[in-house]
Amino acid sequence: MTLVCMCYNPKQGVAEKSVSAWKDHWLLVGPKSDPADLSSNESTAVQDQFAQIFLAAAETTGSARPVRFLSRFDKSAANVRESSLWAAIGQVPWAHPHASWYHQCQDSPLGALEAASALNQYTLTERGTWFALNDAARDKLEIFSGGVGAEDELLLNPAHAVVGRHTQNKEMANEFIAWLKGGNQNSHGTFRCASHSTFYAATA
What we know:
It is built from 6 helices and 10 strands, in the order ββαβαβαβααββαβββ. The protein is α+β, with helices and mostly antiparallel strands and 204 residues long. The protein has 2 domains: 4-24 and 154-201, 3-Layer(aba) Sandwich (D-Maltodextrin-Binding Protein, domain 2); 26-146, 3-Layer(aba) Sandwich (D-Maltodextrin-Binding Protein, domain 2). Strands 1, 2, 3, 4, 5, 6, 7 and 10 form an 8-stranded mixed β-sheet that branches. A two-stranded antiparallel ribbon has the order 8-9. The two termini are 28 Å apart.
């Protein structure tokens, strides 16, 4: 059996070899009404935007226009990145069961984004999921922060090609990895979602 998988969070001890395969970006999106008033903040740094969402959520609890954040809360790459952004500003909302502003929604990427649109909530999503969202739901949302390509940016979403330790046909697996690293990452750029590119070649 040849075992090569593509993943966003390769685990140590499972992979014999892991190489960069492609990259895409996370997007911080939310209702166009922008109840957290992110658009007025001079800083576009995503950590500052998360901090503003947290403060606005605390201030609007119980109001007619509450600020809420939707989390996938499923240990997915989106959930891992979102959790790291909260932790970076000293917050762990998932540890507080009475934090009504933090909506834990275990759904598919598209289902979670549809829920955020319907419920007027902020959330972190992938670029491909954003373009896959139906027009009516997407028209209710706005992108407040999105990756632009820098390798050290917080919204970069790199994917990895992984050869498992228990791969039986390692020669074939390594040939595929060599093919992928040999300039064929650009093949991902031909993939389109609603006519938009969603993946980009990883840095060698």
